[in-house]
């Protein structure tokens, strides 16, 4: 039975994190967790995970939405877990709002034979279109969320003001013609992680170029791995995550916060996780999923 490690970034809902971990808890499932240092309920998080087996690391980095800090956290988790003596076969990146929608037995069976990996990347046509549009905006302008993220700076809108002031100043990306976007939530084999970490080690300026950019956690891994997808046996059009970007009901924000009305779509999606879930909005949905998976 292969060992799996779940790389988790959580910033709210301690009780939801506990529920996710309890669902995933198994003799061959292990956890590297970052609980955002900004979370005011640190004691609740500590209590929520206190009796969970399989936790290998808990960190408290300050993660800024859209900033390099999220990339830095994931890469650190990957490096640490890759060196773990448990020799993990698969590495799964999830947030503290990704809920398992299959049983642990069904989950493991997907990865038991072979070394296929799963992530969502641009097609060639999507990449060509986005390289002359949104990727320029994300990569060739300056963003300072990671630098000025204290309460006073946020109240005074310092990152936004700096962005506007420096917007005319471009910093062209030399490898824009090789950029591919995708999702930063993936399930990758050890072989794929080995390739990724070797690439980062031998191209030390690669990660640095993603500093002071916006939402490039959705670009940094795809750009390295999509060109070698066949070599590494990566399915680049299926992340095994159910995410609703085109909801059938009104949504306050996207992706949609999932509720019971999405249950049938999730069940028929063959996804391993659904995101994003929240409390209390998703409680009924999670109960339905648990009933299907655990017979509760």
Give an account of the 3D structure.
This is Peptide O-xylosyltransferase. It is found in: Endoplasmic reticulum membrane; Golgi apparatus membrane. The protein is of the alpha/beta class and 296 residues long. The chain has a single domain (4-125, 176-295), classed as Spore Coat Polysaccharide Biosynthesis Protein SpsA, Chain A (Alpha-Beta Complex). It has 14 helices and 10 strands. The chain has helices at residues 14-24, 42-49, 68-82, 104-112, 124-131, 134-139, 151-155, 158-166, 190-202, 204-208, 220-225, 229-232, 263-267, 283-294; strands at residues 4-10, 29-35, 55-59, 90-95, 98-100, 117-118, 187-189, 234-235, 241-243, 273-275. Strands 3-2-1-4-7 form a 5-stranded mixed sheet, sandwiched between helices. Strand 2, helix 2 (42-49) and strand 3 form a beta-alpha-beta unit. Helix 1 (14-24) packs parallel to helix 2 and helix 3 packs across helix 9 (190-202). It starts with a strand and ends with a helix.
Question: Keywords for this structure?
Answer:
protein xylosyltransferase activity, alpha/beta, golgi apparatus, transmembrane, Spore Coat Polysaccharide Biosynthesis Protein SpsA, Chain A, endoplasmic reticulum, transmembrane helix
